[in-house]
Amino acid sequence: MTRLDAGGLRFNVERLDGQGAPGAGGRETVVLVHGIATDNLTSYYFTVAPVFAAAGYDVVMYDQRGHGRTTRPPHGYRIEQFSGDLALLLDELGVAGPVHLVGNSFGGTVALDYALHHPGRVASVLIVESEPPTEAWARKMSGLLAGSAYQLHDERTLPWIEETYGRHEARLVRWSMRLLHGTSIAEDIAASRIPDEAAWRSLAVPVLAVYGANSDLADMAGWLRGLLPHCRTHAVQGHGHSVLVGTPETVGPLLLEWVREGHKQLIGDPVELGESHEEPGERQEELREGRDPAPAGLHAGVPTP
After folding, report:
1. Is the pLDDT of residue 123 over 50?
2. Which domains does the chain have, with CATH numbers?
3. How far apart are CA 216 and CA 45, in angstroms?
4. Which residues form the AB hydrolase-1 domain (predicted)?
5. At what angle do helices 106-117 and 79-93 cross, to 10 degrees?
6. CB neighbours of 208 closer than 8 A, spacing ≥ 6?
7. What local confidence, expressed as pLDDT, does residue 174 receive?
8. Are 200 and 227 spatial neighbours (Cβ–Cβ below 8 Å)?
9. Are strands 2-6 and 9-16 parallel, antiparallel or unpaired?
10. Is there a contact between 15 and 4 (Cβ–Cβ < 8 Å)?
11. Is residue 247 within 8 Å of 185, Cβ to Cβ?
């Protein structure tokens, strides 16, 4: 692991070197961006990172600000600051050509924000259980973070998490308490710079959005295809929000195929906006039978009773 100074923070970075991607003049780079609160770069280390490295891609993983072994400042958690960190890190690492960005949960939101503001530096975006930063997203995420922080003040919460989800999850939640109770992250997310709809409709970067079919977020697949002109979606049956770690043997090859060939099919070939798509919420009835068993707080990284 490498400690890298950028933007006044010290970041924890891990790199895996590929052996030369098939058909590439040089090695392409895949950057993995993790979720919020209980997450860090290790969620990729034993899931999809080895898949990309074995296929010949250079892989970059890092702990986002306030997470893992990266500096945890008391303030500075707006979405544009997270995506700004990514730009600084790629500069410091000397990553030249356009990269493939993979983002899980909140990490996908960061990846999309980065792609919108740096389209020339992005070959494609792959999001897993994520959504773009919108006004509705900012309100929801801020509320989830604030609610999780409140729940964790209750001394009964951690024992319940350990009993229900195990010691590992409880340990991650203990780490997240430092972020939720020691920073202004909930307030900062609410104050984030939010792109307007026209900006998203102009995004020329190919996007693959993967959702667990039993997740609440699966509702937005059709809406996202209507919003982003170069977007495809894929539902993984039998899984919810934790699909990345729940079935890496499914998600890994799916993401790899997109990076190798799938994204090329959408370059210069926007999806017609008239294509049939449902607005978020239309699949609620359909999901009731197989609803994601993960608690609502997991979208903010913290399971709560």
Report:
1. yes
2. 2-134+193-295 (3.40.50.1820)
3. 26
4. 29-167
5. 70
6. 124, 125, 126, 127, 231, 232, 233, 234, 255, 258, 262, 263
7. 84
8. yes
9. antiparallel
10. no
11. no
Residue 292: band (very low, low, confident or very high) from pLDDT cuts 50, 70, 90: very low
| Residue at token pair 């893992």 | 68
CA–CA distance, 246 with 185 (Å, rounded to integer):
27
Two structure tokens written together for 180? 């939720």
The answer to whether 281 touches 220, Cβ cutoff 8 Å, is no
The answer, yes or no, to whether residue 275 has pLDDT greater than 50, is no
Residue 26 makes CB contacts below 8 A (sequence gap 6+) with 20, 97
Whether residue 97 contacts residue 180, with contact meaning beta carbons closer than 8 Å, is answered with: no
Beta-bridge partners for 124:
100
pLDDT tens, residue by residue, 19-78: 655 544 468 999 999 999 999 999 999 899 999 999 999 999 999 999 999 999 999 999
Q: Measured between alpha carbons, how far is 30 from 121 in angstroms, rounded to an integer?
A: 12
